[in-house]
Amino acid sequence: MKKFKPLLLKFGLGTAIGAVNGFFGAGGGLVCVPILMKLNFERKEAHANAVAVILPITIASATLYVLKGRVDILSTLIYIPGGIIGAIIGTFIMKKISPSLIKKLFSLFMIWAGWRLIFK
User: Fold this and answer.
1) Domain assignment present for 99
2) Fewest CB atoms within 10 A around its CB: which of 37, 99, 104, 118?
3) Domain residue limits at 108
């Protein structure tokens, strides 16, 4: 049973990440990165792994929203090429900056996102 406790914990954490991502339409990474850091991932690895965790969760959420008619697919397609380019740029930038700077930028982004949610 002891072997299953860590698996159950990770399953539960994955469920929480998915629920946040599905409920808010994004934000699972904001939950996932700190969780992975607590599980002894180094900062850069936590960010990279969060993307890998969020991808299938986001695909599942997006599929459900499309099936329920809540997504205008044609209106969203224009964002995908720019998003892919941005992802590539972000990956290269992360390789070149220090974990300390990543921590500060991530923290500022979280504060900015929270500020916008509260006051706009």
Assistant:
1) yes
2) 118
3) 27-119
Q: pLDDT tens digits, residue range 23-43? A: 886 778 888 999 999 989 999
CA distance 15 to 63: 17
The answer to whether residue 6 is domain-embedded is no
Q: Are the C-beta atoms of residues 16 and 31 closer than 8 Å to each other?
A: yes
Give the separation between CA 84 and CA 104, rounded to whole angstroms: 24
How many domains would you assign to the chain?
1
Distance between CA 48 and CA 94 in Å, rounded?
9
User: How many beta carbons lie within 10 A of that of residue 110, not counting itself?
Assistant: 14
Whole-number Å distance between alpha carbons of 57 and 7: 18
pTM of the model: 0.76
